């Protein structure tokens, strides 16, 4: 029996129209919900803006600074790792290893923020407080040791390069980095005694007037950066993987090495997609609540020191809104903070979508001309 007999033509048309109507209604419902949230926030924050004007925005400046500070610390930690891993996975890693590594990294996005915040606040923060010099030594030394490994591999003989192929560097670099990690911890007491009189925290306080708080921007940056890496990596890797292969092959045919083709051709072609990934990662970092709530001191400070705490707008809303009286000044200040977060997230996502559409048109043009 043919498919046409099982599903008559009018019935199939009816099913298509019902499905189209449901999808259209869902899309319109989402748009109306976003519009409703924006209208509600503007309506609730309008009295405060009309009466206080710019004073209300000035009162939110410590929260805004804390939000930007936390997001910047997270991006400084996440972007080099995520973008570097995306470039390596897309152009250098073997297909067999990529089929296992990429899903594993993407599954990291499913880890709840409250779990990351709990680990950062209860385990990471006390350890860093006791071993501040070791932490900074590891943060500085591990990237340098990774570059040193690449230099040694480049200078090695062809036989060793075949034994340790670049496509499997994600595996043979693990013991090297572990050895460098142990070496950094072993050298830390000598470095601290030589340069910082045996106590880095005391040296920072005396020389620069920097106080160290247990839960600070450094802890938030490490924890939030860990949470941001999967989303940035996934979007960046997809953008790089969609670069037309004829572009890479043409660059290599003209004499460019694979690394030169990646830097000068692939990154330029995938630039809009990479920018979109960075913007979405920034939006995630700005809107994160539980990690900042559990891993920072939640003190509203206007300080650029990475060793002091901060309070973000999202954390302030989570802490103070349950106790705020509806219609009161505190309530309207928190609504205004929510409005600023809403506008930032909306603008970031809109910009990311516009860039993604530009990338799609560029790929279509390249595909038509190739």
UniProtKB/TrEMBL annotation:
Entries under InterPro entries matching the protein: MetI-like, MetI-like_sf
Transmembrane segments: 21-43, 63-89, 110-128, 134-156, 168-187, 217-240, 261-282, 331-352
Cellular compartments per GO CC: plasma membrane
CDD domains the UniProt entry points to: TM_PBP2 (cd06261)
Keyword Transport belongs to the record: yes
Family: Belongs to the binding-protein-dependent transport system permease family.
Entry protein name: Phosphate transport system permease protein
Species for this entry: Vreelandella subterranea
